[in-house]
Amino acid sequence: MTTVSVTLTVNGKKVSAAVEPRTLLVQFLREHLHLTGTHVGCDTSQCGACTVHVNGDSVKSCTMLVAQADGADIRTIEGMASPGTLHAVQEAFREHHGLQCGFCTPGMVMSSADLLTKNPNPSEHEIRTWLEGNICRCTGYHNIVKAVQHAAATLRQTAHAAE
Ligand code: FES
Ligand code: FES
Fold first, then answer.
1. What ranges make up the beta strands (E) of 45-95?
2. What is the pLDDT of residue 133?
3. Minimal-distance CA residue to ligand 1 atom 3
4. Nearest ligand to the C-alpha of residue 140?
5. In sequence order, what are the residues at sequence separation of 6 or more whose Cβ sits closer than 8 angstroms to the Cβ of residue 95?
6. Is the shortest distance between the CB of 45 and ligand 1 below 6 Å?
7. Confidence of residue 86 (pLDDT cuts 50, 70, 90)
8. Residues 117-140: pLDDT tens digits?
9. Residue 75 carries which DSSP code?
10. CA angle 44, 64, 82 (to 5 degrees)
11. Ligand 1: which atom is nearest the Cα of residue 61?
12. How far is CA 150 from CA 27, 77, 155, in A?
């Protein structure tokens, strides 16, 4: 079997492995590193359940080979907060009942966190547009949007307090 060597930083830890060249980033995270918070909902780049951060940008990890991510800094839902704590976006999803069945939630959280680093005060329209690549099959997106608005306010306050 032909393999390629990859070295990535995942949630702050350096990992190296020899993988088949066709290995997807999502497969590597779930099957090699057992980081199963990153979900596979479609495998065709539609649902966004597999969203992780690659060098700070949200990326659908089913659309990328792990070999393409060689040398990259990856963050998954498991690395969003230190153990026993929640990231402001996770906390807001819990508070605003944005979790629902929870399958899409990791991808929603990762996408939303990326949005809020790029746009700390998004309008409802901007949030809905940004999350178009993340599909939730449960209900309308109302609670998710409310959660993102709440997280945005919390993060703005935190940034303000740190100034
Ligand atoms: S599993 Fe990647 S977009 Fe659906
Ligand atoms: S919460 Fe169930 S699919 Fe979104």
1. 51-54, 57-60, 73-75
2. 96
3. 45
4. 2
5. 147, 150
6. yes
7. very high
8. 999 999 999 999 999 999 999 878
9. E
10. 105
11. 2
12. 32, 19, 9
Q: Say which residue the tokens 């949005």 belong to.
A: 115
Average pLDDT, the chain: 96
Q: What is the C-alpha separation between 85 and 88, in angstroms, rounded? A: 9
Question: 159 CB under 6 A from ligand 2?
Answer: no
Closest CA to 19 of 36, 34, 7: 7
Q: How far apart are CA 161 and CA 1, in angstroms?
A: 54
Question: What residues pair up with 19 in beta bridges, in sequence order?
Answer: 4
Tokens of 26: 């999502």
Instruction: In whole angstroms, give the CA distance from residue 53 to residue 75.
Output: 5
Question: Encoding tokens for residue 112?
Answer: 């939303």
Predicted confidence (pLDDT) per residue in 62-80, tens digit: 999 999 999 999 999 999 9
Residue 161's pLDDT is what? 86
Lowest-confidence range among 40-44, 62-66, 88-92? Answer: 40-44
